[in-house]
Amino acid sequence: SMTDLSPFDDNIVNKIHYLFSEVNAVKCSMVGDTLTTFNNRKYPVNMPLSCYQVLAQDCTIELKFMVLLKKDHASEQNHINVKISDIDVDLYTEDHGVMVKVNEMEISKDNLPYTDPSGSIMIKQKGEGVSLYAKSHGLQEVYFDSNSWKIKVVDWMKGQTCGLCGKADGEHRQEYRTPSGRLTKSSVSFAHS
């Protein structure tokens, strides 16, 4: 009967709410060598070895967060660095496990979940990898494992990010804007800028 499908069924409302918040969290990811930008553009990226590239950062004057990636010269493994106010977090792999360092101090798996003293960052194990959350600074989640990473920014950061992941504004044309503001035609010249 129709009464079973009351529109106020909490469970349905929660599911819909969850779907919307998942859709609204703009995400950028890389699996293997394929980068998917915030605006859902896919392109192959060959990261130059041992130099950091900006994946995503808050491009307002507040510069609330910055997520950098470099490929380790020896192992060719990804190494992600997240900067939030005066906190520096390094995520990298060693012996097939994900390592976490906060301001150069190693945080062992037994000490996860970890929350920094100011309470603005939380790091916890998730599946095969590790996730960092810093919602108050605009980062919904930075996930990292041995062969992929994913960055989600909160709703209110839409259109205010820059870096390899793009602007997160639903536009495709602006994707390859260099730090100097020039538009480049290709992902390669962009990556090297």
TrEMBL record:
InterPro entries xrefs: Vitellogenin/Apolipophorin, VWF_type-D
One function term, GO molecular function aspect: nutrient reservoir activity
Signal sequence, start to end: none
Top-rank taxon, per record: Eukaryota
Protein name: Vitellogenin
Pfam families cross-referenced by the UniProt entry: VWD
GO BP terms, alphabetized: cellular response to estrogen stimulus; response to estradiol
PROSITE patterns xref list: VWFD (PS51233)
UniProt keyword list: Glycoprotein, Storage protein
